[in-house]
Amino acid sequence: MAKAFFRLQKFLRRTQFLLFFLTAAYLMAGSLLLLQRTRLVIQQGSRGTPANQALPVPDEMTRVGIVDPRTLQSPRPGPRLLVGMDALQEPALDQRHSPHWLMSRNSELRQLRRRWFHRFSSDQEPLQTAGLKAMKHTTEHKGTYMGCFTHDSRERTLKGAVFYDLRKMTVAHCQEACAERAYSYAGLAYGAECYCGNTLPAAASKPEECNSECKGEKGSVCGGVNRLSVYRVEELRAGARRRRNVIYRGCFRAPENLTDTFPASLIQPNLTVEICSEFCSKKEFPLAVIRGQECYCGYPTGRFPLREGAEGLRCSGARNASRAAEGKYCLVYQTPVQDTRCTDRKFLTTKSKVFVALSSFPGAGNTWARHLIEHATGYYTGSYYFDGALYNKGFKGEKDHWRSRRTICVKTHESGKTEIEMFDSAILLIRNPYKSLMAEFNRKYAGHLGYATDRNWKSKEWPDFVNSYASWWASHVLEWLKYGKRLLIVHYEDLKQSLIPKLKEMVEFLNVTVTEDRLLCVENNRDGNFKRSGAKQKNFEPFTQEMKDLINRYILTVDEALRGRNFSGLPREYVPR
């Protein structure tokens, strides 16, 4: 027995020594590889150098110290284009814009894009947190707690604006958001959802049923399951602040019977936009319609779809609200109240039999398209990635596994053969590359809602970005055209200009039936939470002539490929710039 025990002990000692030796060898090999890669990165030259010189890696990527292993295996010297972490072989000039080269180059960029995307997505979280902290410290609205109430997501009592923050929601955050839009009540549910309104819910619940802790504030209660913790917001903004949230929609021909079209009305001498919009806000309607001294409140409907506006002269003097043109035309304003007829969303009750991608180049409006699809169909969209900023703002499909088939479609920027062939069909969203490149550059340096600084635009990163991402814009479309099984091509510009017809095409492609009122509701909520406010004007042209020549060649290549597959070509505004 002792002899057997001694043999076992001897064997274990040898095994322990062997494991120690293998671990040390592994660490040494890793260190040598890291040093070798770092040396390779440091040896790279700068962009814009002659063809026999190397091109640089952006500063943030040199800290990672990773290059494509294929670079280490290739014995052939020659010019290299380093994009982030991958070293790409520069082709001959006459082959540089061919579809074959673009697709080959795209496969080498793919790993880079994944890592960049996850890195930049994770960077958005501090931005969101910083904004929330600033809001909390600016003004604390200590409203009066009104109690716990029943909450029905389909027939909401608080019918105003809706906000989500699935990680950082607090009572103060919700009250601040509702107060900024001149609402009287703020209600919280599920620990992360905020609802605003001007009417107190009728059905009270037991206090203990509001038992969900706020996601961003331990010890505080933010409603519960189908329960609202309701506060009365004491400090509402001044009238000028409320007026800022009213948006002029245009001059439209008035419907034949306004009282049948609109459920609420007010007749008052010396009627103003402020009086009408405040009246409709209190009635919790998203539209305020003015004709002379008459004020009407309601929604866009089949009788009043807001599709064809009239000339501004038809409503001459109507901004004064007291001189509408002979009663045939009316002024329409958007109140701060959200149109809630299309805000209810859920996951598919059964797994989808058709696996659909919503594919686009970054900066092409994928998030906006997801917003439209979710509100039109009532189902969440998924994502090949995870973006905390999108998840916090209500895109709950972000956290669902992208292959779960519980979402109506899945966002992806991938364009490799394997990734494409996983999907049964796809909506391919294409945007003007000039606008896409600028949008993605803004997102990279300032998040979903910010703008890159002039310093960013004038730095070496911008030409590096254009040189690498412009080819990706082209190869993305080319590979989906080659490997996609069933495609619906949607141009961002067409969707923006003709939202209802194009959205109908997308919904039909997804095999979902929707009502006209729901589509009108989507149009009324078309911007969503991720539209940059205004177009920040730059006092210089960001694209050099060399950049324009490069991008225009890619545009012509993609246009030819689309027509070759019997799709309509790119919109005329794409080329030449």
From TrEMBL:
<dbReference type="Pfam" id="PF00685">
    <property type="entry name" value="Sulfotransfer_1"/>
</dbReference>
<dbReference type="InterPro" id="IPR051589">
    <property type="entry name" value="Sialate-O-sulfotransferase"/>
</dbReference>
<dbReference type="InterPro" id="IPR000863">
    <property type="entry name" value="Sulfotransferase_dom"/>
</dbReference>
<comment type="similarity">
    <text>Belongs to the WSCD family.</text>
</comment>
<feature type="domain" description="WSC">
    <location>
        <begin position="245"/>
        <end position="342"/>
    </location>
</feature>
<protein>
    <submittedName>
        <fullName>WSCD1 protein</fullName>
    </submittedName>
</protein>
<dbReference type="Pfam" id="PF01822">
    <property type="entry name" value="WSC"/>
</dbReference>
<feature type="domain" description="WSC">
    <location>
        <begin position="142"/>
        <end position="234"/>
    </location>
</feature>
<dbReference type="GO" id="GO:0008146">
    <property type="term" value="F:sulfotransferase activity"/>
</dbReference>
<keyword id="KW-0677">Repeat</keyword>
<dbReference type="InterPro" id="IPR027417">
    <property type="entry name" value="P-loop_NTPase"/>
</dbReference>
<dbReference type="InterPro" id="IPR002889">
    <property type="entry name" value="WSC_carb-bd"/>
</dbReference>
